[in-house]
Every structure is written in structure tokens, then in C-alpha cells.
Amino acid sequence: MCVNLGCNDTSVGEYNPELLTDAFKQFTQTLRDYYPNAKIVYIIGAIPESRKSRDIRSAQQAAIDDAALRVDHEVYRMDFTPEDGSLGWGSQGHPSMKRHALMAEELTAFLRQITGWE
Questions:
Q1: Nearest Cα to 41, choosing from 106, 118, 90, 95?
Q2: Residue 81 carries which DSSP code?
Q3: Under 8 Å between Cβ of 21 and 56
Q4: How far apart are CA 45 and CA 79, in angstroms?
Q5: How far is residue 42's CA from residue 94's CA, in Å, rounded to a whole number?
Q6: What are all long-range contacts of 6-10, with beta carbons under 8 Å and residues at least 24 apart?
Q7: What radius of gyration, in Å, describes the C-alpha atoms of the chain?
Q8: Do residues 38 and 79 make contact, with C-beta atoms less than 8 angstroms apart?
Q9: Which end of the chain is more exposed for a tag (fewer CB within 10 A), N or C?
Q10: Residue 14: phi, psi to the nearest 5?
């Protein structure tokens, strides 16, 4: 299961990175409770590199590390190539069709790697 969370949570006004981290940890445990055998993959859309994207990655990684302490090694993070505008833009700053195609390629390759899919 692929989970893309955090971008909207950090997009308006101030936010608390510690609360974001705690929320990711709790959400990961909730997902695991509902889906005990799933591979959980945290992703962030192909957003430009910023303090917010670093905070989201840090919160995701803390949730992954927390899961690993519970001997849950099926929680991952996959990073898309950050948006730089080189493939154009979609509506209201969202990724273009070309960027979506690149993201699909990157995610497919990552899922093949962790699942062994051909």
C-alpha cells in the first residue's frame, strides 16, 4: 500500500514537526493493525526540496524506524525525483502529465524491488 501524506498538512501556515512525526507513527501502527501483512510505502509527491519536504521525510523515517523497533521491516519510504519544473506544470502547481509518467516509472521500479515482481 502506498501512502502519500504530509504535503497538505504542511502547506498552509505553521505546523509542528513533532506532532507530524507522532501522527505518522500512530498512523503507521493503525495501518499495521488493519493490514498486518501489507508492505507500507510512504511517498511524497514530486515536490520541490524545502524545509517542509525535509520535515515530512523526517516524520516518515521516524515512523519507519519506530516500526522497525517493533520488528516490522515491511514499512518503506520512496522518494520521487524532486520537482524542478523541467517537465512542465499541471494545474495550480501540481505535477504535469510528463512528471506523472516519470513518477509512475519510479514507483513501479521501487515496488518491483521490494516485492520481487517481474
A1: 106
A2: P
A3: no
A4: 8
A5: 19
A6: 6/44, 6/55, 6/56, 6/59, 6/60, 7/44, 7/45, 7/47, 7/52, 7/56, 10/52, 10/55, 10/56
A7: 15
A8: no
A9: C
A10: -85, 155
Asked if 11 and 55 count as a contact pair (C-beta separation under 8 A), the reply is: no
Per-residue pLDDT of the chain (118 residues; tens, 9 = 90+): 999 988 888 888 888 999 999 999 999 999 999 999 999 999 988 888 888 889 999 999 999 999 888 888 899 999 999 888 899 998 888 889 999 999 999 999 999 999 999 8
Cell digits of residue 79 = 522518494
Q: pTM for the whole thing? A: 0.86
Closest CA to 107 of 87, 73, 117: 117
